[in-house]
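Exercise (ungraded).
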Amino acid sequence: MSAEGDVRSIRIRELEQLRSLGHDPYAFEEYPTSHLPAEIHERFSELEGTVVSLPGRITSLREMGKASFADITRDGARIQVYIKKDDVGDPAWEIFKLVDIGDIVGVKGEVFKTRTGETSIHVRELAVLAKCFHALPLGKEKEGQRWYGLADVEERYRRRYLDLIANPTSRKLLIARSRIVQETRRYLDARGFLEVETPVLEHEVGGAAARPFITFHNALEIELKLRISLELHLKRLIVGGLDKVYEIGRVFRNEGISTRHNPEFTLLELYQAYAKMEDIQQLVEELVRHVAVEVFDSETITVDGRAVDFSKPWHRIDLLEAIERYAGVSPSAFDDLESAKAALERVGISSEDEDSVGGIIEKLLERFVEPELLEPTFVENYPLETSPLAKTHPANPRLTRRFEGYIGGREICNAFSELNDPIDQRTRMERQAEMLAAGNEEANPVDEDFLYALEIGMPPTGGLGIGMDRLAMILGGADSIRDVILFPTLRPLSPEE
RNA sequence: GAGCCGGUAGCUCAGGGGUAGAGCAACGGCCUUUUAAGCCGUGGGUCGUGGGUUCGAUCCCCACCCGGCUCACCA
């Protein structure tokens, strides 16, 4: 018999013993919480001697014959409880003897300090509300140092509940992610943006370069695809007169998995009619500052060990100038494909698979510029070829009024003045469709209805996309996107596991 | 998809051609203010899976599975 199977059968036996004592844990539907552990610690002087009621999980047990200390963890904080046979009486003591680490219990008793000075609850009443059938991977902790815990990353992602119980840092990070999304909403709502929901299941995808997931609707007998962006639906709403809209929604891209990519992730897109690129830049600066202050209580956040002050405006740099500065390739190299490929080879990158100047520019950006952009920076004026939905730059028809924002060398947003010329848009979509036909699975087909919407007339509009997972990674200090996603995509275990 | 690294007790890890160890957790005993509680004792492992080499494999070889990192991919 394995040790773990042993624990489980022992715990189930204890459950039966509890029931035979007339105490059925699963019969409880509630247990009052008068004060949370954090509150008891904070307000000890005022609560000393008063009776509190607290349910929570047992995370440590120190038994000493006819008395015991245990820790109850609740809401991310722990408090010690002291239980003594003479104080609770024999029946309750019998129940307590069947309590294990991991069980959910409820206690009532008065607040006091032990002689070693630890704020505790002197238990007078005890109830078991749920048994834990397994040994929990709880770490031991002293003076902020941890000895053990759940370190296996695979187990942490597959069994997030154990990770949340065992690792306070995981709990804090995932709560921070939730708060970042919440404060993003609050900021946008306060500025008059309307939150909307648009379809996840689409006939054709668009708005980004990515391969979609494909599924099937039985009743309609049609293939449907999971959206890869929110863009084309939201811009239809701008056409319809909803001047400030946003959606925070899940999008799905059928591509590789890495520390920065999960097949499904949360994207914020917003569109503001009668606003231009610079207005959106200002919005990003204010939004990130708002989130930093509200979630982390500070305008300054440490990103990769470096203090970043979000009260200051972000740096602005022209994309081609940035490439000249960091890669040493002058803008004239991008006059035609041949010289662009030659320039790429010159800096030591194969140009074999490159078929557009825009693609080469973005490759150089990624390789040489992005890692340098530690301070919050907007890179401006992206190539038209790789920006099929952005307005053409008035000074250079090969560029667009598009920018991306970087912090700590990582891209966090993509934004532009939206292309609202239906004829130009049709040309660009047709070019995409040709690429799709030629075998580029990340290109999009022509969206006739979207073009019709533009023909109705879309006001000049500024748009923005922020990967919320990436934002949470950067602000929360996570190395992997999986750390800010509750249940990241993993391969399934074999059936017997 | 490629390369590298990893998978040993419930957890965290060590070990290494003669079929395995520690701490925590668990179980039994002692202990009525402990806190990495302590003391005494006990149990627990198809060493990721399947083949191969060998008298003998957890260890060496091959394949596969799962994960991590890097790269590719990701306008």
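Further reading is listed at the end of the chapter. For now, observe: The CA atoms of residues 282 and 313 of chain A lie 8 Å apart. The domain at 169-314+375-484 of chain A is CATH 3.30.930.10 (BirA Bifunctional Protein; domain 2).
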